Amino acid sequence: MSTLTVTTANVNGLRAATGKGYVEWLAATKADVVCLQEVRAEPAQLAEHVREPEGWHVLWAPSVAKGRAGVAVLSRTEPQDRRIGFGSTEFDATGRYAEIDLPGLTVASLYLPSGEVGTPRQEEKERFQVEFLDHLKALRERAAAGGREVLVCGDWNIAHHEADLKNWKSNKKNSGFLPEERAWMTRVIDEAGYVDTVRRLHPDVDGPYSWWSYRGRAFDNDSGWRIDYQMATPALAEKATSAVVERAATHPERWSDHAPVTVTFAL
């Protein structure tokens, strides 16, 4: 039986992560596909061994806003097709979404906007959610018609349930855990028909968290958020055999404020 291993990782600035251990992590990973978010660099600004890592085919989707956002998809198998954006006039050039087609599977990297209550950033996040939910529905329908599965990986910037963040009681009025944001995540599952693969394999635990603030002792106390998801079409989700957050052993070993989230599927 063959397997497919996919990792999603918000790198919090790829140039900075490169000097902290990202390159060594990529060289050691057993993943077949790696989805990156918050790259915050144009490909030309990256060292060649980062821009074109040996053994990988890379789709870069930088933002027109310098130093912001940016996603990428790395695949050991050459993609059959590549797409940047999801048909949005407002968001396609903002470095928030890219997808590749592999045999029988579409894999996407998503960096959903982070918001701030009462500011234009939250309004931007809400506009993105409206458009993106429509895309998720259409993507699944197209895939089903073509006998394909879909896996949308990335930083969704929303903790869906109380079990998805340590201090949920104090965050009920903060972006990332607002009732309307959580309801939107439920719609991704109930209306668009996707499955949270990590939660499916870890149904009755707090976390596993994937982001910890650099402030205070959040990492040491495991006071984190689970906002990095791998959302799969149901038939693919059923084939997920393991889901692991690659949490650094110590604070100094972190190369991002997020940890890679890796899921393996038995195909």
From TrEMBL:
Belongs to the DNA repair enzymes AP/ExoA family. Its cofactor is Mg(2+). Transmembrane segments: none annotated. Keywords: Hydrolase, Magnesium, Metal-binding. This is Exodeoxyribonuclease III. SUPFAM superfamilies: DNase I-like. Its EC number is 3.1.11.2. The keyword Cell membrane does not apply. GO terms for molecular function: double-stranded DNA 3'-5' DNA exonuclease activity. NCBIfam families: exoDNase_III, xth. InterPro entries: AP_endonuc_1 (IPR004808), Endo/exonu/phosph_ase_sf (IPR036691), Endo/exonuclease/phosphatase (IPR005135), ExoIII-like (IPR037493). Coiled coil: none annotated. It is an enzyme of class 3 (hydrolase). Residues 8-258 form the Endonuclease/exonuclease/phosphatase domain. It comes from the Bacteria. It holds the Pfam family Exo_endo_phos.
